[in-house]
C-alpha cells in the first residue's frame, strides 16, 4: 500500500494542494453537503457521545470533514493523516483559521505509522480509495484503519466508483460541470483526459461492499451520491 500511497503523495504536490479547495468543489457537486452529512452520520452512529477520537485518513487539503465534525461535536478530537506534505500543510492552515488546530493531531505519513495501541471511536476515508491502484492497496488501507478502531466503530468511506469510461453519460455530465464553471471545450478535454488516466475507482457499489467485507467491515449504508461519487457508512465487525 505504501508504494501506491507514495504515488498519490507525489500526485498531490504543492500546485495541486493550492487549488484543491476550488477544484474539488467543482469536480464534486455537493462537496460541502457530503462533508456535513458525513459528520451527521457519524454523530448519529455514535449516539450521545460527549467525546470521541476520530481518525481522519487523507485529511489533507480543505480539512472540511474535520471542520464539519467539530462544528457538530465540539468536544471531539481528531488525528489527521496524509502522505502529502503540501496537502497536510493546506489542511493545517484551514484548521488554524477555524481555531481547530489544538483539537487535531497532524500526522504526515500513513495509517501504518501510527502507534499500534492508538485506538479510535470512528474514522473517515474521504476521497482516497479511487486514488489507490488495485484492490490490494484499497483493502490494505481499510485493514490498517480497522486495526485502529474500537469494536463496532463506524467508518465513513467516500469517493468515486465505476470505471469512468463505462459511464459515458456521467462522464459527459462531469465535463458539463466544468464548463458550467468557466472551462473552455479544450480545457474540458484536458480535465477529462486526466480523470480517465489518473485514478482507479471501484467498479460498482457491490465492489465497494466487497472491499469493506474483505477488510472486516459490515454492510455499508450509502447516504450521498453525486455523479461518480458516493459516500457510505459502515462499522467494524467483531
UniProtKB/TrEMBL annotation:
Cite the Gene3D superfamilies for this sequence: Vaccinia Virus protein VP39
Gene Ontology MF annotations: methyltransferase activity
Source superkingdom: Bacteria
Show the coiled coil region(s). none
Gene Ontology terms describing biological process? methylation
Source organism = Pseudomonas karstica
Q: Does the keyword Lyase apply?
A: no
What name does UniProt use for this protein? Methyltransferase domain-containing protein
List the SUPFAM superfamilies hit by this protein, alphabetically: S-adenosyl-L-methionine-dependent methyltransferases (SSF53335)
Q: Name one Pfam family in it.
A: Methyltransf_12
Alphabetically sorted, this entry's keywords are: Methyltransferase, Transferase
CDD domains per UniProt: AdoMet_MTases (cd02440)
Annotated Methyltransferase type domain residues: 60-154
Amino acid at each position: 500500500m505504501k508504494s501506491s500511497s507514495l504515488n498519490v503523495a507525489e500526485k498531490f504536490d504543492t500546485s495541486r494542494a493550492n487549488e484543491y479547495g476550488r477544484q474539488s468543489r467543482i469536480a464534486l457537486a455537493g462537496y460541502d453537503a457530503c462533508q456535513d452529512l458525513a459528520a451527521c452520520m457519524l454523530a448519529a452512529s455514535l449516539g450521545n457521545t460527549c467525546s470521541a477520537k476520530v481518525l481522519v485518513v487523507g485529511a489533507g487539503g480543505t480539512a472540511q470533514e474535520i471542520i464539519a465534525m467539530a462544528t457538530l461535536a465540539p468536544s471531539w478530537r481528531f488525528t489527521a493523516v496524509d502522505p502529502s506534505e503540501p496537502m497536510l500543510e493546506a489542511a493545517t492552515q484551514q484548521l488554524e483559521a477555524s481555531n481547530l488546530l489544538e483539537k487535531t493531531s497532524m500526522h504526515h505519513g500513513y495509517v501504518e505509522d501510527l502507534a499500534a495501541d492508538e485506538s479510535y471511536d470512528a474514522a473517515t476515508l474521504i476521497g482516497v480509495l479511487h486514488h489507490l491502484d488495485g484492490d490490494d492497496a484499497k483493502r490494505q488501507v481499510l485493514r490498517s484503519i480497522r486495526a485502529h478502531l474500537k469494536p463496532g466503530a463506524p467508518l465513513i468511506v467516500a469517493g468515486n466508483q465505476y470505471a469512468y469510461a463505462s459511464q459515458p453519460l456521467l462522464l459527459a455530465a462531469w465535463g458539463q460541470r466544468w464548463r458550467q464553471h468557466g472551462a473552455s471545450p479544450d480545457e474540458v478535454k484536458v480535465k477529462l483526459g486526466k480523470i480517465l488516466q489518473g485514478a482507479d475507482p471501484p467498479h460498482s457499489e457491490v465492489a465497494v461492499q466487497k472491499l469493506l467485507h474483505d477488510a472486516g467491515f459490515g454492510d455499508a449504508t450509502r447516504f450521498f451520491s453525486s455523479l461518480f461519487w458516493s459516500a457510505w457508512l459502515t462499522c467494524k465487525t467483531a
